[in-house]
Amino acid sequence: MGLGKGRVKGSSGRQPAPGRMPAGAAAAPCRGRSWARRSAGWRSSMSPSTALLLLVVAAAAGAAAGARILAVLPHAGRSHHLVFEPLLLELQRRGHDLTVLSHFPSGGYTRELDLRGTMPVLDSVLPLGVLQSLNPFTDYMTIARIGHDSCEPILTLPAVRALLASNETFDLVLDEAFNTDCFLGFAHRFGAPLVSLSSSVLMPWAGARVGNPLNPALQPNLFLWFTDAMTLWERVLNAAYTALVNVVKALHWDRLAQRVADRNFGPGLPPLRQLARNASLLLVNAHFSVNLPLAEVPGVVEVGGLHIPDYARTLPKVNVCLFDPR
């Protein structure tokens, strides 16, 4: 019986599957170079300048991974800046790109806007005798006045005006939750998340930024001399004073700050109270071991001791005579 056309001898008469080599047939030699040889040829043909360009691009991509951070520290008190500076320097050391507005330039950041000359610098100017004559009513008005007086000179500084008019972008804005909210417009202007810093235990109004208002029945106001073991009368005074301070701030100082902010940040600026409540985090220079233990929401993080350098963690041995031997 003759074989049909296209059949392979010894097969069952089926056509081989497409692309499959018939049994016993010799494989045809591959005419093209293998992938390994082609890739090896590509590597060997790369010029040194091309390799250098790729390394530069990779290095630039790695540097771009750091965040661009704007730190607005308008208060002219050195004691406040000493708390924040270690945090900012560490962020810069870890590869972030920091632009810092402060009265105490250090030269350790990507860019610094020097605010010196806009306000008198408060450095070693508080006599200890003043601490004995503190008045809770005049104290608040004094620090509120200092905060308000700093708004216009700083926001109209040519370097600050140039920053606001620029097309720069920032990934994060840091500000101090202290005596004025007129600088909160920076977070709105650059559309960046806001993290607030406090150089001491919280001001009576600061915790409200992250939904953690002061409870006057349990927590003494910063401006008063009470402890957490308040009597009923002290709790009443604490509540009345806290309410008074918040009302004065809302009806007087916040309105003044809003006017200054509207003039300098332009139309469309939301109310400063709303911007304050957009804060994502509040870092506080306090700790329950040395301050009062408080019930706080997760948005309030105590970072007491953050400004203490690593080399100071080991205390030196000091011989102290507690009692007079005489």
Automatic annotation (TrEMBL):
This is UDP-glucosyltransferase 2-like. Belongs to the UDP-glycosyltransferase family. Residues 1-30 are annotated as: Disordered. It comes from the Eukaryota. The keyword RNA-binding does not apply. Keywords: Glycosyltransferase, Transferase. The gene is LOC127752004. GO terms for molecular function: UDP-glycosyltransferase activity. PANTHER family: EG:EG0003.4 PROTEIN-RELATED, IP04436P-RELATED. Residues 13-30 have a biased composition (Low complexity). The lineage of its organism: Eukaryota, Metazoa, Ecdysozoa, Arthropoda, Hexapoda.
